[in-house]
Amino acid sequence: MWRSDFVFFVQDVNIHLAPNGSYEEVASSGGKVGVWRGASYDDAFWKTFPYSDGTTTYSPTLKKYDMYNEQLFIVKGPSHALKMLGRGRVTFFLEDRIAGQYLVNKNNLQGSVISYEQSVFSKGYPMPFIKNSDYPELKQISEEFERRLIILKNDGRYEAILKRWLNE
């Protein structure tokens, strides 16, 4: 149904540290990366920033801070990460582009915190409705939602909404 594109956010003065915002550039920059403890990210992320014991896949059992890669700075959540980025405590923060831009705006960081154009990974969300819900006619509602979302994307209104409300 929709796809969430994850990008790095950075202070505009530090964008040169990773010109394209790729995992490899961010890793070789040596900058601290704010990560949300419990967020799984993707396999390439964990291969680039392995745990201190060498684990290169997400492991929810490794919860101690000292187990994370030395470049990773554990934050309480996305809003906390953006605040840390705004204060210069972390150099990068990986987040969904739309959610991150919303938080940038909410925290009045427009102009000082920006996102890279390049998406480092995407995560698909096939259904915004709970499949096991007993809400009447949910299947018809979800099909109509999908139909109208496609229309909005095809005629440009979806992009206009993003631009108006998220400064995209």
Explain this structure to me?
The protein has 168 residues and is an alpha/beta fold. It contains six helices and six strands. The protein has helices at 23-29, 43-48, 78-87, 97-106, 138-154, 157-166; strands at 2-11, 33-36, 72-75, 92-96, 113-115, 121-125. It is globular. The two termini are 20 Å apart.
Terminal Cα span: 20 Å
Fraction in helix: 25-40%
Structural class: alpha/beta
What is Rg? 18 Å
Question: Rough shape?
Answer: globular
How large is the count of helical segments? 6
The percentage of residues in β strands lies in 15-25%
The main sheet comes to: 6 strands, mixed
Average pLDDT metric: 87
pLDDT < 50 runs, ≥5 residues: none
What is the chains' assembly state?
Answer: single chain
List how many beta strands DSSP finds.
6
Name the helix and strand elements from N-terminus to C-terminus, one letter apiece.
Answer: EHEHEHEHEEHH
Features:
168 residues; alpha/beta; 6 helices; globular
Kindly summarize this structure in a few lines.
With 168 residues, this protein is α/β, with parallel strands linked by helices.
Could you give the topology of this structure?
Blueprint: E1 2-11, H1 23-29, E2 33-36, H2 43-48, E3 72-75, H3 78-87, E4 92-96, H4 97-106, E5 113-115, E6 121-125, H5 138-154, H6 157-166
Parallel strand pairs: 2-3, 2-4
Antiparallel strand pairs: 1-4, 1-5, 1-6
